[in-house]
Design a protein that fits this description.
Radius of gyration: 17 Å
Strand content: 25-35%
Structural class: alpha+beta
Number of strands: 8
CATH class: Alpha Beta
Distance between the termini: 19 Å
CATH architecture: 3-Layer(aba) Sandwich
Length: about 200
């Protein structure tokens, strides 16, 4: 059985069955309610561009000079993050599926830190990239969901989870997502989304 992703509709299907996704579930906790749709769309487009550029940069396949000016600063922040922490990306943009809880998503990257005093290089870590002004509380449940799904089928397991806040001025801030309640909060959102779908109050995507 395979996990399929429709990028245009942002829908996941496992074995042909429409499956709740992490982004949709955590959007209910995001705190962006009331923000105009066009602003959210522009921010989403910027986030996509930053994710793609940093992924290419990890692979030494980025034409930096061809990047839009607005994206370069975020890439500079990613490069500074890698240099100062010794971060090594082992896998990026990895689709994951939880057979136990029946949800899917795409994590940003899994790897390890080579120059962090508080994290040994042998410890597998998950890092989520954010090109946002602030780190919303929903990020904790989001990365917890990716971690849980990854750990169901992969070894070594992810032991630490982080969000790196990339900034347009070429800087960054690393946040560890260590709240023990994060995954239970995510499951509450998943339960609510499934309940709405079951009662035809909202479509599960």
């Amino acid at each position: 059985m395979t996990l399929e992703f429709d990028a245009e509709r942002h829908e996941y299907r496992f074995a042909g069955v429409l499956t709740p996704n992490v982004t949709r579930i955590t959007s209910m906790m995001s705190g962006y309610f009331g923000v105009p749709a066009d602003v959210l769309r522009r921010k989403a487009e910027l986030g996509t561009a930053v994710h793609l550029a940093t992924e290419f940069d990890d692979e030494d396949d980025l034409d930096y000079d061809a990047l839009p000016e607005i994206v370069r600063g975020y890439v500079d922040g990613w490069r500074k993050f890698r240099e100062q922490t010794g971060w090594v990306t082992e896998l990026s943009e990895q689709r994951v599926y939880s057979a136990r809880y029946r949800y899917a998503g795409t994590l940003d990257c899994v790897g390890h830190f080579g120059r962090m005093k508080t994290v040994r290089p042998s410890v597998k870590c998950l890092v989520d990239k954010k090109a946002t002004y602030t780190i919303m509380p929903s990020v904790g449940p989001q990365v917890a969901a990716y971690t849980e799904a990854w750990n169901e089928t992969n070894t070594p397991k992810v032991r630490r989870r982080f969000a790196v806040q990339l900034k347009p001025d070429g800087n960054y801030k690393l946040h560890e997502c260590g709240d023990a309640t994060d995954f239970s909060v995510f499951l509450s959102g998943l339960t609510l989304l499934n309940w709405k779908a079951r009662h035809k109050l909202e479509t599960t995507t």
